[in-house]
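Worked example (supplementary).
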Amino acid sequence: EPEVTQTPSHQVTQMGQEVILRCVPISNHLYFYWYRQILGQKVEFLVSFYNNEISEKSEIFDDQFSVERPDGSNFTLKIRSTKLEDSAMYFCASSGWGDTQYFGPGTRLTVL
Amino acid sequence: GQQLNQSPQSMFIQEGEDVSMNCTSSSIFNTWLWYKQDPGEGPVLLIALYKAGELTSNGRLTAQFGITRKDSFLNISASIPSDVGIYFCAGHLWLNSGYALNFGKGTSLLVTP
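After joint prediction of all chains, the assembly is encoded as:
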């Protein structure tokens, strides 16, 4: 069964450093998403991406965040200058048109 | 985003018991989804509901999309230890360019043998 994959599974970084989280969505999906989950809290929407552009973003997704689909398979989330409060699980998800979203296993980001 | 109220916050039950949890929203959704999350993993889709009033089953799981489109419930029958985890409801309004899922805060389920 096709699945969303994410790398790395755990990323530790120093405050102020840039990080790139990577995702490989399900191959025939057209819509891509990033969510985050702070420890013990609910999953929060960050951004959706369709047709090579951002289609929707939340208040959390400020200028420090960016997304990119550099080739036909990868979908990345970049945080330019990490803050302590960026520590969370980051989930990538993908969907077909009008379809439900399937989530990856997540990347645990720890900012020291 | 819209606020989803999920209850109960946690449940501690014995194996074999039935479980019920629900989710309400102040806004209308056109899709309700139920996900399960195990520790350190991503949410896994359990049931998707697309029509108001729809009742859908997936094995021991049953979920319903409320008539008002502002609520949903999930029932688990004859619980087993592997049902342990956090259950999230999520709703959305579908847009042509995709959609943002709004998640509830989750129901933590513990099952004792």
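Two points are worth noting when inspecting this output. Chain A has a mean pLDDT of 93. Chain A touches chain B through 28 residues (CB under 8 Å).
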